[in-house]
Write a structure and sequence with these properties.
alpha/beta, 10 strands, extended
Length: 313
């Protein structure tokens, strides 16, 4: 058997990648080594100054949420941090060895059977009251669970503000939000199946209610935080594809009067999306409460009325 120098028999993915890099670098050096050296020699100090200007420009571009890594579009907040995450995901997906799961992670899902169980007992079904969630956490603790991930996001439409809390009730962050153009607490039937251009202004509402949200594939290559997939309502970084809408400026304005501009989705600052929403809900489902602006709390959250009745003297 003949074995080529530097390439072991049955090379792994990492070994093949290393061999490819060495070969490619050698070809580059032979073809452009002198040209590159001459170019750098001519620039001298200007080379480092140019690199500094480019780096500072990119940081400014990223800090103000102007740029994106979403294809060739602007907006969406796909910054350097997200590019790093995407690169890390690609490396993990292509790794030659996939470690076995420990089998110690369990998803305790609140399904329809769980909701029906309490309704048959004459108790409120959905949404669950806080004391029932507390009982669930207590039962998990008694079963020997050492850590529970349980996160909640609140959206106050009247204040155009988003609040994120962890399982212990600690607020992780808040930020202004852009909401649906139309005032209302219900989604028009079938609006989630329409093209954006077919959604009339009166149908561009952000629905109120309690939702089980999670990250999932968006219209493009990006993942978005789906609040209600059926009506195509998601929470994502502010969109800047149409400069005439001035969405970033609307987020920074001190008034909430200009925060109604979207087709129903919730737009937040890119930094808040990356540092709070993505980090909190990236690997798990979360509960999203969108408070009403037309209806009462009792109409949107029947449990609220039940709690008032049971607590009345």
């Amino acid at each position: 058997m003949t074995v080529k120098k530097g390439v072991p028999p049955n090379p792994s993915l990492l070994e093949r990648a290393a061999a490819w890099f060495i070969k490619t670098w050698s070809l580059w050096e032979r073809a452009f080594g002198r040209t590159s050296a001459a170019f750098a020699s001519r620039l001298r100090f200007s080379f480092f100054l140019a690199m500094t200007v480019i780096a500072l420009g990119f940081l400014f571009w990223d800090f103000y949420g102007i740029g994106t890594w979403n294809g060739n579009q602007l907006g969406g907040g796909r910054s350097l941090a997200s590019a790093e995450d995407s690169l890390f995901d690609s490396v993990i997906a292509k790794r030659p060895v996939d470690p076995e799961s420990s089998g110690r992670v369990i998803v305790a899902e609140i399904d329809q059977c769980s909701i029906d169980y309490f309704e048959k007992k004459g108790e409120a079904g959905w949404p669950w009251p806080r004391d029932r969630h507390a009982d669930l956490l207590t039962a998990l603790g008694d079963a020997g669970v050492t850590a529970v991930g349980y996160d909640v996001l609140f959206l106050d439409k009247q204040a155009a503000q988003v609040f994120v809390y962890d399982a212990d009730g600690k607020m992780l962050g808040s930020a202004p939000a852009l909401l649906g153009l139309a005032i209302g607490d219900d989604s028009t039937p079938g609006v989630g199946d329409r093209e954006l251009s077919d959604i009339a202004p009166k149908d561009r509402t952000t629905p109120a209610g309690r939702f089980q949200a999670a990250f999932g594939p968006g219209p493009g290559k990006e993942k978005v935080f789906w609040v209600d997939y059926g009506t195509a309502i998601s929470l994502h970084p502010v969109i800047t594809t149409n400069p005439k809408e001035h969405r970033p400026q609307r987020l920074r304005s001190p008034t909430v009067a200009d925060n109604r501009i979207t087709f129903g989705c919730i737009n937040v600052p890119p930094a808040f999306y990356r540092q709070v929403v993505a980090k909190t809900f990236g690997d798990s489902r979360g509960i999203v409460y969108i408070l009403p602006e037309v209806q009462t709390l009792a109409q949107v959250f029947p449990m609220f009325q039940l709690q008032l009745a049971t607590s009345a003297p």
